[in-house]
Amino acid sequence: MRRYVILSFMVMMALSLFTGCGNNNDSSGNSAPEKATFTVGFDKEFPPMGFVAEDGSYTGFDLDLAKEVATRLGLELKLQPIDWNAKNMELDSGNIDCVWNGFTINGREREYEWTKPYMNNNQIVVVLADSNVTKLSDLAGKIVGVQDDSSALTAIDGNAEFKNSLKSLVKTPTNLNALMELESGAVDAVVMDEIVARYTIEKKGANYKVLDESIGAEEFGVGFKLGNKELRDKVEAALIEMAKDGKLAEISDSWFGKDITTIGK
């Protein structure tokens, strides 16, 4: 009897071990390895490059590019809205992998690891449609609005004659805030990215006009923390690949009605 009990116990233990091993194998077989994340920092009030859609989702030309790049690199994309003034802190802390949102290279060449430029842009002046301002010199003694810590502000600072001619310069958190100041009459003009200005005017039918003279020309790129050349190179290679197979032109056409990209050309 004792031998029977011992034998039965041994059989039960063996079955238990076998069943346990089987469960472990099934579990490991069903769990796919987690994808590495690719976190993109962007200004959520910078249409058409990155902004909040009517349904509350994040959308934009740059974000569509980032989605395609992440897919090609096998990475899980995470879109992270940031305070534009805190972009360097976000990069340095590792909260984001890059800044990708109409990010101007010019004047910042040594501050980030940049991809090759993927599109051109200008800093232009927007006034109300009924304004008597038609050229830059007409802004002498006027109040001009501009987004703080932006390439538009850099362009103004780099044009001493223009800046010194102004009555004052009003800095706002976003371009949209600057345009609101223009509509309220608090400022006489706004200096901002041409891409954003023309998109806003076209989509919203805004009562604005753009001066023929620009403050300065520039190029957009994707900016990474200094030293992160490996990820920069992968993203750049994906963008060039997209240019060659037509995907870049397809995304550009969906937002601007034509291909305005420059990388890989």
From TrEMBL:
InterPro entries with a match to the protein in the record: Iontro_rcpt_C (IPR001320), Solute-binding_3/MltF_N (IPR001638)
Protein name as it appears in the record: Extracellular solute-binding protein family 3
Gene Ontology CC entries for this record: membrane
Listed SUPFAM superfamilies: Periplasmic binding protein-like II
Keywords: Signal
Domain of life: Bacteria
SMART domains: PBPb, PBPe
Stored PANTHER family: ABC TRANSPORTER EXTRACELLULAR-BINDING PROTEIN YCKB-RELATED, MEMBRANE-BOUND LYTIC MUREIN TRANSGLYCOSYLASE F
Domain Solute-binding protein family 3/N-terminal: from-to ranges: 37-259
GO MF assignments: ligand-gated monoatomic ion channel activity
CDD domains given in the database record: PBP2_AatB_like
Signal recorded as keyword: yes
Secretion signal span: 1-19
Pfam entry (one): SBP_bac_3
Coiled-coil zones: none
Domain Ionotropic glutamate receptor C-terminal: 37-258
